[in-house]
């Protein structure tokens, strides 16, 4: 049995779209019941429900926090439920808590879920929420240092220090979109993949970031059914087994964040999680990196030693991380490829990790997928949580 003790045995997901007519509860009903059906369990076998908190949706958050979901789904066997908020790291913590439920005997099967509907939130509300996210409201926000500004500052610094060119940075979008165009759940499904030159031709949002290097807010949701690794093995179904985990905290405010500490945190968490899983870097089939903005992908590639130091951008430009390349990377295209559903992007990444290990990824399926590196980051990147997932449990 794996040291971490849990496995994902069922997944459900709806396409990420801009569809205001599709309510949050429509998405919750569909994704949760699809995940239960995919698991082969009866809905009344679900004894725990853990929800990743929706961002910028206070009414929905209140309904879920007050325990409405098990009742709405008619989960007669449910013993407990809760909602977890750690921004983009929320799903990692939902899975941690699911493991605790299972280990302590509270629940044999846990439903982990997320939903976001951005399209029904007014533009002023969205601006107010994302304009204040990740910045110090007393010392930075009054002077115009919003989240997008911070991302531009980070990109400028990395490009200056590493020599990463604008064309190399733009190629990250090309790589991510090459996966997204093949993903039926992506907002960019079936759409032409922009070349790096096309990315650079789009208007500047904040130097050096262009429009096509920024995220598209959208609506989406997904769900997973989690059981013990031992039970998953007995069921004999394709599953994703959690084999290792590590985490590091950086800072809550981006403008005081030590970039060297972050890079070192990326390195250490990967090594610790892989050591716990009993694997090495060369064993990883997919690097499923959740980073929200393209600029962080070359940084992560170098920190993970997947790309040589100073060559992260070049590896993307060469197509090595694109679909068909030799380094399968963020196989739903991260937020720039999937469409940004708040904390739900990391939820979708976990679903993709399970999908690949179960052999259900269709045209995007990575051949002989055995181990997947998965990371999440909370809030504006206050931490990094790494988990290693495998097709089989560690004995």
Task: Outline the structure in words.
The chain is α/β, with parallel strands linked by helices and 395 residues long. The chain has a domain at 6-121 and 222-235: 3-Layer(aba) Sandwich (Peroxisomal Thiolase, Chain A, domain 1). It has 14 helices and eleven strands. The protein has helices at 24-39, 58-65, 68-73, 90-104, 123-132, 147-162, 166-180, 196-201, 229-235, 259-277, 296-303, 312-317, 334-338, 344-358, and strands spanning 6-17, 48-52, 80-84, 109-117, 204-206, 209-210, 219-228, 240-249, 286-289, 371-376, 383-390. The strands form two sheets. A nine-stranded mixed sheet has the order 3-2-4-7-1-8-11-10-9, with helices on both faces. 55% of the residues are buried. The model has no long low-confidence stretch (mean pLDDT 94).
Shape call: globular
SSE topology string: EHEHHEHEHHHHEEEHEHEHHHHEE
What is the class of the domain at 6-121 and 222-235 in the CATH system? Answer: Alpha Beta
Give the structural class. Answer: alpha/beta
Describe the secondary structure blueprint for this structure.
Blueprint: E1 6-17, H1 24-39, E2 48-52, H2 58-65, H3 68-73, E3 80-84, H4 90-104, E4 109-117, H5 123-132, H6 147-162, H7 166-180, H8 196-201, E5 204-206, E6 209-210, E7 219-228, H9 229-235, E8 240-249, H10 259-277, E9 286-289, H11 296-303, H12 312-317, H13 334-338, H14 344-358, E10 371-376, E11 383-390
Parallel strand pairs: 2-3, 2-4, 9-10
Antiparallel strand pairs: 1-7, 1-8, 4-7, 5-6, 8-11, 10-11
GO molecular function: acetyl-CoA C-acyltransferase activity
Domain Thiolase C-terminal: 254-391
Organism: Desulfatibacillum alkenivorans DSM 16219
